[in-house]
Specification:
Layout: H1 2-9, H2 21-34, H3 50-73, H4 88-115, H5 120-133, H6 144-165, H7 170-192, H8 199-225, H9 227-230
């Protein structure tokens, strides 16, 4: 239905994609009905700690690797032409709102609930796969291989977000995941104009984020294995 409204209203999907709000609607409905009965992992930390800084560093490294690959390949993806986007303030606000709408469901609900049944690493893998497959509309405009590479990228991003959010309260998880998600979206848009849907474009992203996501998974395993790192706080939340 939201996709139909998108088409009927003629909304530019690069500015606002209404389907992202289906995740938030579903999550908020679950919270409204079952909030008091939902199992939730214990809160182990708050504020800015080493894992959050490492997650931010891996995000920046992934973007830098993807940019470097594009330059080495002489790829045609460049920044969007001036004036091709909505007014900047509106565009940024809409993009941030869209990222929040997705993260309310994925990192605010699905990931923590899975953590009560399986390890954080496994939970982030499952969440990432569902997150990637949830963008099924991407598959309509690209080759199957490209969509498969997109799902790999989504899993890797999920691992990075898990490094930053595991052990935190519900609202910290949503806030941190939203901001990192927003930064990644802005980087791919402003550096590559969201690419051209080619296998090469999605392969670059899968490689760049895959490497950094693997590093994040190692760091997450080590953090959970070391009780001292669970309470390490630099700034209070």
């Amino acid at each position: 239905m939201l996709a139909w409204v998108q088409d009927a209203a003629g909304l530019d999907p690069n500015t606002l994609r209404l389907t992202v709000f289906s995740t938030a609607v579903g999550a908020l409905a679950v919270f409204a009905v079952w909030r008091r009965r939902l199992p939730y992992p214990p809160v182990e930390k708050s504020g800015v700690d080493r894992s959050l800084l490492l997650a931010l560093a891996t995000c920046l490294a992934a973007v830098a690797i993807a940019w470097g690959l594009a330059r080495l390949q002489g790829a045609p993806w460049r920044s969007p032409a001036p004036g091709s986007l909505a007014p900047l303030a509106v565009f940024l606000a809409v993009q941030l709102l869209g990222a929040a709408a997705e993260e309310i469901g994925w990192r605010g609900l699905v990931q923590p609930l899975l953590e009560t049944k399986i390890s954080p690493v496994a939970a982030s893998l499952v969440t990432g796969a569902l997150f990637g497959l949830g963008h099924f509309y991407v598959a309509f405009g690209v080759a199957p291989v490209s969509f498969g590479l997109f799902v790999i990228t989504a899993v890797a991003i999920s691992m990075i977000l898990a490094l930053a959010t595991v052990g935190r309260s519900l609202w910290e998880r949503i806030l941190i995941a939203t901001l990192l998600h927003f930064l990644i979206n802005m980087a791919t848009l402003l550096l590559f104009a969201d690419g051209d849907g080619s296998v090469l474009y999605f392969a670059n992203l899968a490689l760049a984020f895959g490497v950094c996501g693997a590093v994040a998974s190692i760091l997450l395993r080590r953090r959970k294995a070391d009780p001292q790192t669970q309470s390490e706080i630099i700034l209070p939340g």
